[in-house]
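Field: sequence (string)
Field: structure_tokens (string)

Example rows 1 and 2, in order.
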Amino acid sequence: MDSYQVIKKPLRTEKSVVDGESTNSYHFEVDFKANKIQIKEAVEKFFNVKVDDVRTLIRKGKIRRVRFRPGRTKDWKKAVVTLKEGNTIDLGY
């Protein structure tokens, strides 16, 4: 898989901002088929940092109403990337 397809977007939530400041870890939405090695290589390539640990989890889609019927949003994959000491990523928040 191409490195440009692995990371879809950084996640900006209250938890991700606190994790970035306290534990030097950053949250990303990644491609569903990407594994931890591909995620690590993509983050190191794009942000010029050294990655210490990658944790992934799959978020299940929610049930939403679509035209008076129940619909469902897609499942998506989240990656929590912990950087080595002294490395940071400036995501603008």
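Row 2 begins here:
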Amino acid sequence: MTPRIGVYPGTFDPVTLGHMDIIRRGAKLVDRLVIGVTTNPSKSPMFTIEERMATVRREVAGIGGDIEVVEFDSLLMDFAERQGAKVIVRGLRAVADFEYEYQMAGMNQQINPRVETVFLMADVALQPIASRLVKEIALYGGNIAKFVPESVRDEVVARVEKIGRKGS
């Protein structure tokens, strides 16, 4: 039997508790989950691709199952095809996410109809978390402990100290 392979793509800058929730739940739906770490040209990352991949690898190490973290810089559907994936896993937080993700899923289906997109609703307690907001809170000296794993919090705080806090 061919293993069911899924891809969970994102920038993971930084990886949040919301991402971890989707990873844990997505890993249960497939035999192998490939976490595709990319750089979105419309975002300016706080961490390099290498740093983000290392962080995601560290954070998923204790989850169990067949999870691989892979860098990609291509169309998502081409990446999914190269991985042998039949499923794209996407997390949804709110209606605004749905509109964007629905449009992307439609475009992706036009590009490669052999790959389905599966949406997972984020845990209610984690729905407001967004990497962009985590970075903004940290840059202004706010506490991000409720939004990211502890080791990620330490990395974000250290990076903010290096680049300088805003509003000081």
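free_text_note (row 2): Residues 95-111 form the longest helix (17 residues).
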